[in-house]
Amino acid sequence: MMQYSDKYFRMMMPFIKKSLKRRYGKEYTKELVKKTDVVYRDTH
Questions:
Q1: How confident is the model over 1-44, as pLDDT tens digits?
Q2: 4, 16, 27, 34: most buried by Cβ count inside 10 Å?
Q3: d(Cα 44, Cα 40) in Å, to the nearest integer?
């Protein structure tokens, strides 16, 4: 079974954050990224 690795998640986050900030704003993006990280860790 594969171990949790956040290598690719961390590699893509700057690009994802930039896009989300443009679309939804800084505060919402900050909250969303926190939630996303928790969900990603739980599923992998």
A1: 456 667 877 888 899 999 999 999 999 999 998 888 777 766 55
A2: 16
A3: 6
What is the C-alpha separation between 12 and 9, in angstroms, rounded? Answer: 6
CB 33 within 8 A of CB 15: no
25 token code pair: 């704003």
Distance CA 25, CA 40 (A): 22
Output the pTM of the full model: 0.63
